[in-house]
Amino acid sequence: MTDFGNFYQLIAKSPLSHWLETLPAQLAVWQREQHGLFKQWANAVEFLPALQPWQLDLLHGVTAKSEQPLSEGQRKRIETLLRHLMPWRKGPFSLYGVDIDTEWRSDWKWDRVLPHLSDLTGRTILDVGCGSGYHLWRMVGAGARLAVGIDPTQLFLCQFEAVRKLLGGDQRAHLLPLGIEQLPALQAFDTVFSMGVLYHRRSPLEHLWQLKDQLVKEGELVLETLVVEGDENSVLVPGDRYARMRNVYFIPSALALKKWLEKCGFVDVRIADVCTTTIDEQRRTDWMVSESLADFLDPLDRMKTVEGYPAPRRAVLIARRP
């Protein structure tokens, strides 16, 4: 599962080929620094059956079906192995009668974002901080030629590879266990997504520059992040925690974020969507049993976090690299 040879071959004759100057060495370092539970997670993936879906729907969700329903024993075995990879945060997935009800309804976010995007048909896409890779599959469903996700969390790589195995080993999506700061300026992606990452960055403008460095000329950035209400100078800098999260540094208003993007040289910047995150979209489930959004909000006033800050609102901004 930690053999990235297929990906190397895939990009060797593409505009991404110069990535091969640094990528194999970085992934070799990663292999020497694996999480204590990694072997256990990798074994769960290894023991999953390699199934070829008779019916695969990546347009309306991530759904795979077999021609004949699996036996109860087969279905139970798949579910047990997938439960070894809990907690499942981004999804949902429906795989041969096993429904992974994830903490986030990531399909709702996708439905909000998709109408505002340039057509993804034939595009090479980067998804920064992609989690389990749910949105990579939706990008493929929307016509992407290649969807590459990066996320350093090793459990997410195992979740992605488990889903890929059950989708018949589909090579149109790949997840690499890296952070954006490890990428050279590739300038090779038609579309770059950064969703739910910016507020975790100590230097948000540097993150925007890093995203810009990955885009081709005229390439499109899709940025989704926490925002507060306010004018173009409004930015919340929370104390020790925001909604019980430790590593939240800057939460700008949507208008301030638009200004930041313009300061970094993006053009045609537009605020595509702003909405409050609800406890229906992010919640505890049978596949993610620890605390979730309802536990992070003030029980007497759902418009505030437990720390007294404004409750989570998220904005989607679209911008272009000139």
TrEMBL record:
<feature type="binding site">
    <location>
        <position position="199"/>
    </location>
    <ligand>
        <name>carboxy-S-adenosyl-L-methionine</name>
    </ligand>
</feature>
<dbReference type="GO" id="GO:0008168">
    <property type="term" value="F:methyltransferase activity"/>
</dbReference>
<dbReference type="GO" id="GO:0016765">
    <property type="term" value="F:transferase activity, transferring alkyl or aryl (other than methyl) groups"/>
</dbReference>
<feature type="binding site">
    <location>
        <position position="109"/>
    </location>
    <ligand>
        <name>carboxy-S-adenosyl-L-methionine</name>
    </ligand>
</feature>
<feature type="binding site">
    <location>
        <position position="129"/>
    </location>
    <ligand>
        <name>carboxy-S-adenosyl-L-methionine</name>
    </ligand>
</feature>
<dbReference type="InterPro" id="IPR010017">
    <property type="entry name" value="CmoB"/>
</dbReference>
<comment type="subunit">
    <text>Homotetramer.</text>
</comment>
<dbReference type="GO" id="GO:0002098">
    <property type="term" value="P:tRNA wobble uridine modification"/>
</dbReference>
<feature type="binding site">
    <location>
        <begin position="180"/>
        <end position="181"/>
    </location>
    <ligand>
        <name>carboxy-S-adenosyl-L-methionine</name>
    </ligand>
</feature>
<protein>
    <recommendedName>
        <fullName>tRNA U34 carboxymethyltransferase</fullName>
        <ecNumber>2.5.1.-</ecNumber>
    </recommendedName>
</protein>
<feature type="binding site">
    <location>
        <position position="90"/>
    </location>
    <ligand>
        <name>carboxy-S-adenosyl-L-methionine</name>
    </ligand>
</feature>
<dbReference type="Pfam" id="PF08003">
    <property type="entry name" value="Methyltransf_9"/>
</dbReference>
<dbReference type="InterPro" id="IPR029063">
    <property type="entry name" value="SAM-dependent_MTases_sf"/>
</dbReference>
<feature type="binding site">
    <location>
        <begin position="151"/>
        <end position="153"/>
    </location>
    <ligand>
        <name>carboxy-S-adenosyl-L-methionine</name>
    </ligand>
</feature>
<keyword id="KW-0819">tRNA processing</keyword>
<feature type="binding site">
    <location>
        <position position="314"/>
    </location>
    <ligand>
        <name>carboxy-S-adenosyl-L-methionine</name>
    </ligand>
</feature>
<feature type="binding site">
    <location>
        <position position="104"/>
    </location>
    <ligand>
        <name>carboxy-S-adenosyl-L-methionine</name>
    </ligand>
</feature>
<comment type="function">
    <text>Catalyzes carboxymethyl transfer from carboxy-S-adenosyl-L-methionine (Cx-SAM) to 5-hydroxyuridine (ho5U) to form 5-carboxymethoxyuridine (cmo5U) at position 34 in tRNAs.</text>
</comment>
<keyword id="KW-0808">Transferase</keyword>
<dbReference type="InterPro" id="IPR027555">
    <property type="entry name" value="Mo5U34_MeTrfas-like"/>
</dbReference>
<comment type="similarity">
    <text>Belongs to the class I-like SAM-binding methyltransferase superfamily. CmoB family.</text>
</comment>
<feature type="binding site">
    <location>
        <position position="195"/>
    </location>
    <ligand>
        <name>carboxy-S-adenosyl-L-methionine</name>
    </ligand>
</feature>
